[in-house]
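Handout, tutorial session.
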Amino acid sequence: MMMTELQIFGALATSTVFISRFFYFRSIYRDGAKPHAFSWLIWGCISAVGFAAQVAEGAGPGAWARGFACATCFILVFIGWQRGDRSYKTGDWMTLAVSLSAIPLWIVTQTPIWSVILVCIIDCVGYLPTIRKAVDKPFEEPAAGYAWFAVGALLSLAALEHYTPSTWLYPVVMVISNSAMTGFLLLRRQQKTAIA
């Protein structure tokens, strides 16, 4: 059976997210990367919501990468508890509490677009614990993992069956936020190397 163009892009997007996770897992076990469990828990919960919203709005193969990303987020939560950065600060706990307490708002809104807007905001807030840690320890986060994830989110846009704000907004935010995180990590690494 021949794959449609959308299915090809969906498979490419999912493969690219797989590559991003490969870099992340390899960095954990080979290079000593330490995922912040709070960020990954927030991203896992929000990815589940975003995936559900995309499926409800008929995203088709454009949602495949989000579903795969969601599953791997929860694997990284577990690894984060076991091997990750455990220097949780008050701000990390506050970020986690605010993010998770916003999930019931998604249930109350009952509108896909408001759900996706909330998801995008919470997802961006989820970066705060990892950014706080990466300011001092930028080598504990694999920049390549974030870069490849941005590419996967971009490809998932090409795989969407229906373009509505509810289906395209979250992947666009993922492209921007993961690209920004990549740039931030590379900049902090350069600064740390220059100081050393």
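The second record follows below. Compare its token runs with those of the first.
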Amino acid sequence: MKMILLLIVILAFPITASADQEAARLAELDQFWAEVSRTVKEGDFEGYSATCHAEAVLVTGTKKLSYPLTQALARWKTEFDDTKSGVRESSATFRFSQRLGDATTAHETAILLYSFRVGDGEMKHEYIHLEALLLKKDDCWKIIMEYQKAPATEEEWNALN
């Protein structure tokens, strides 16, 4: 009987350790996405850029294009500057439907809710199906590919609650 109990503990330990490792990995990724959200909200362009790998790629399903994320960053800088100065209000929130990976890689499937208002204008909400590939190097996660697949709906967003 003691032998059986010992065998169960030995066999169960790797599963528990693996579950603990996965929980820690997801906590790190949650911190990554929280940092992305913070930088968008505060208009912190340098902080946002720091979440991106130097060779990252942006893929847009609606435009059927793929290009270096540095080009998108150059285009987005004005929005970050306007947010930082208070001319614009911006936020980015993520809800995940699938999170795959290991200790140094991640494939995240989500819906991004990007909300913004310029001046006294109406708050606008864009729901976007998103896939992201991330790499972890030197204890730091960086996005290497952002695939903005297609528009999503508020209903799809709410379903991921």
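Points raised in discussion: Helices lie at 2-42, 45-50, 69-85, 154-159.
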